Each structure stands twice: as structure tokens, then as C-alpha cells.
Amino acid sequence: MKKDIKKSAKRRLSIAGGQIRGIEEMVDQEKYCVDIITQIEAVREALAGVGSLILRNHLETHVAHDIRHGHEKRATEEILKVYRLAQK
Amino acid sequence: MKKDIKKSAKRRLSIAGGQIRGIEEMVDQEKYCVDIITQIEAVREALAGVGSLILRNHLETHVAHDIRHGHEKRATEEILKVYRLAQK
Amino acid sequence: MKKDIKKSAKRRLSIAGGQIRGIEEMVDQEKYCVDIITQIEAVREALAGVGSLILRNHLETHVAHDIRHGHEKRATEEILKVYRLAQK
Amino acid sequence: MKKDIKKSAKRRLSIAGGQIRGIEEMVDQEKYCVDIITQIEAVREALAGVGSLILRNHLETHVAHDIRHGHEKRATEEILKVYRLAQK
């Protein structure tokens, strides 16, 4: 994994983990539902950003390697898999 | 907040927090990108479920109350707000 | 259905229909894939906007009526249904 | 564009166009909002399928070609672009 991507992904995941603990607290203190949902969607978007980052790493390393070594089929199917997950 | 919803939301958020720590570890150990992305999407979906749960609480408590007390406008705008966040 | 919402929804759907015909043409002329996908996502977002508009109508008419007449349960389940569809 | 993908994409787009005309009619006849929204989400999902199909074509043709000819950077950025659109 590229060093800068790894570092950034870990930092963002750590922040997302903190946000989830914050949401747990909001639920515990029975904060306003709409505010809780807004925070949940913020974490979901932050995680989408991490997914995009990891995909960048995948494309820049494995995919290029796969295609140069004749594993196009595998590379294609894997990208389509993560694309479909993102569409949901 | 309804007791059963609160309990379920806290439990699910705690699990999601654990999953995020697991993903941090996967990144740390440089696991296969596609597996990491798949896990990220699983947490995003789990969080969507919590959002849906909190919305249920909101609808069953605040919204009904708001509408009965003439605050239809506010109730409507808030539901549309969370709906649009979900569409993203 | 509220008159202004109906008018706006019909106009937007008509535009979306035109966009889809445009995409069919792009496919026919074998335009660049990334441009085709970008157009598809634009229509998907436009349709999300129509969904949001119809939900506004639903909330402002049926839901308020349902709740005032003791059909809270039905109103809640229906909103949760469309919310979950939006999350996908 | 691959022949089978082109054919399938055109057919699916034509069906989606028909569905949108159906939704216009539902709005015109003021059908139940929840049913209209459900139909809108069905078309959105159908269009997501077409996007996935076009991406498959893109990966199997342009991307492999780009990477073999040293245009990795461009290939990567384009895939990330459509991935981010799908995440929204």
C-alpha cells in the first residue's frame, strides 16, 4: 500500500471511529433525532471517502499490475464489484 | 427516545465502532484493497440501518406530536432533510 | 396532489425522459464511456429530486391527514419504506 | 463499444424511458405518492445497472488499453470519478 494513502486512511478511520463514539453518546443522552441522523450520514460520507482512497491505491498498484500481466478479467470484475457496492 | 430503539441503536453503533477498528487493522496489515472496501461498505450499510432506526423513533414520537400541534411545516422539512441526506 | 408540485414533477420527468433519449443516442454513437456514465448519474440525481418532490407532497397531504386520523402506524411505515429505498 | 453491451444498454435505456413515461402518467393521474416514489427508485436502480454495464465496457476496452500504453494516471482518475458519482 502506498505510504501516504495508508497514513491518510488510518487517520480518517480513526476520526470516523471517534465520530461513532460521539453518536453513541448522542443516543445515550437522547439528543434530537434529526441531529443524530445528520451525524450518521456525515460518518457514512467520511467512510465513502476512505473507500475512494483505498480504491485509488488499488487502481494505482494491483490493477495496473494485473492488466500488464494478463489478469484483465480479474481486475475488471473486482472494480465492478466495488462499483456496485458504491451504487447501493 | 423509545427504550428498545435506544438499546438497539447503541448496540449497533458499538458493533460499527468495532468494525471500524477492524478496518484500521486491515489497513495497518495492508490487506487486499477489495476486501477493505467491502468491509467499509458493510459498515456504511450498518450505519444506514441505524439511521433508519432513529428515523423510526423520530416519526413515532416527534413527528406525530408536531403534526398534532400544528408544526406540520417543521416536521415536513426535517423529514425531507434526512431523506435528501439518504439519497446522496 | 398539490398543483405546483404536480406541474414541477411532470416537467422534470419530461426532461429526464429527454435525457434518457440523449443517452440512448450517445450509446448508439459509441460516445466515450465516462461521458455516458456521467450523464446516467445526472439523470439518476434528477430523478432523486423528483422523488424528493413527491415525498414533500406526501408529507404535506397524506401524512398529516393520516396522523390526525390515528393512522400514525401506516404513515410511519410508508415514510420508512421510501427512506430505505433512498438509502440504497 | 462491445456489441453485446451496446445492445443490452440500448434495450435497458429504452425500457427506462418507458418507465419514466409511466411515472409521468402516474403523476398525471395523481396515483398514490408512495407508489410513484417506489417506481422512481426502480428506474434509478435500472439506470445504475446501465452505468455498471457501460463501466464494464470501459474497463474491458479503454482502461486495459490505457494502462498498456502508459496512461495509467488517466485511467485511474476516470475510474475514481465514476466511482465517486456512484457513491452519491
Descriptive report:
The structure is a homotetramer of 88-residue chains. With 88 residues, the first copy, chain A, is mostly helical. The first copy, chain A, has one domain (3-87): Metal-sensitive repressor, helix protomer (Methane Monooxygenase Hydroxylase, Chain G, domain 1, Up-down Bundle). Helices cover 89% and strands 0% of the residues of chain A. Chain A is built from 3 helices and no strands. The relative contact order of chain A is 0.11. Chains in contact: A-B, A-D, B-C, C-D. The A-B interface holds A 1, 6, 9-10, 13-14, 16-17, 20-21, 23-24, 27-28, 30, 33-34, 36-38, 40-41, 43-45, 47-48, 50-51, 54-55, 57-58, 61-62, 78, 81-82, 85-86, 88 and B 1, 6, 9-10, 13-14, 16-17, 20-21, 23-24, 27-28, 30, 33-34, 36-38, 40-41, 43-45, 47-48, 50-51, 54-55, 57-58, 61-62, 78, 81-82, 85-86, 88.
Topology, please?
The structure is a homotetramer of 88-residue chains.
Chain A: H1 3-28, H2 33-68, H3 72-87
Helix pairs in contact in A: 1-2, 2-3
